[in-house]
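Why do we bother with holo predictions? Because pocket geometry can differ from the apo form. Keep that in mind while you read this record for adenosine-5'-triphosphate.
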Amino acid sequence: MSDRKKVGVFCSGGDAPGMNAALRSIVRRGIAQGLNIVAIHRGYKGILDEAFEKMIPRSVGNIIQTGGTVIKTARCERFYKEEGVRQAAEILKSYEFDGLIAIGGDGTFRGLLELQKVWDGQIIGIPGTIDNDIYGTDYTIGFDTAIDTAIQALDRIRDTADSHERVFIVEVMGRHSGFIALKVGIGSGAEEILIPEDEPIDLKAVAKRIKDARDRGKTSLIIIVAEGVSKPDIFTFCKKLTTQPGLEFSTHISILGHLQRGGSPSAVDRWNATRMGAYAVDCILGGDSGIMVGEQNLKLVKVPLKDTQKKKSIDRYAHSLIRDLAI
Ligand code: ATP
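The structure, written out:
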């Protein structure tokens, strides 16, 4: 048996640009500091399927600039059940893992909290999700790139909206939170930003503001709608909004969808993913467990994993600006 610690690393949940930069950093920092690093393919599913790959420094060559994740990610139904978690713990024990580093979102961290109950290895989380909805960290890997991608799309939509003097409703990602909608909306100069945190939305008031803006001479308008608001789907939601009695208007709908997920990571995402990956390794070396590596006020911090399940609050000040910025 080697006296080098054996540490597994995996990505879980939705892919996010920068996951590869984090992986590269974990592998190279880990090996340089004397760890055995093993990639686990396809998240929790990969533990249960024993999809392990010993990493060498060359395994992560030429990936820092790539989107997605080279070790794949997955959502794993079996891991939601106690039996699946227990089985994963047995497998980790039999392969003599000493620690795990998981890159994912709040669901991934819920999985880690379950695993912690039955496995005594070191557990470290890294926030990797384009949603930026994780409590305890100002930043999550992938958010910066996703925002840039969506804003580029919005700029194109604005050209058409402006030329044809149209109202556009644009759906962006965010089933439970409006972090993407808010930043994309502010950055693209949208006239309305509708977020799940404001549910139930007063559709009559929104329609009235659209009509008033038209009356003030605004020719093109963009309404950003987070996925979590457009229930049961964006088409039904749009119909309800645009047929408010006395306030009817016509719109075009655009769904950005998975376009927001992929792509080459921004400089910010590469930088932060690299720092977080290396810091996660340092946490393993320092004996930490049950924590997420986070960033607060531009400094790396350790956040208890259980805190990641709290609700992160939206920047209400930025959201309140939308009325003034859209006059
Ligand atoms: P994203 O923010 O991109 O959606 P996420 O990590 O929140 O990422 P989820 O699909 O919610 O994505 O979770 C990823 C995986 O974590 C799930 O497929 C499941 O295997 C595991 N997981 C989530 N919640 C739990 C739970 N309560 N118990 C055990 N495992 C869980």
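DSSP finds ten helices and eleven strands in the chain.
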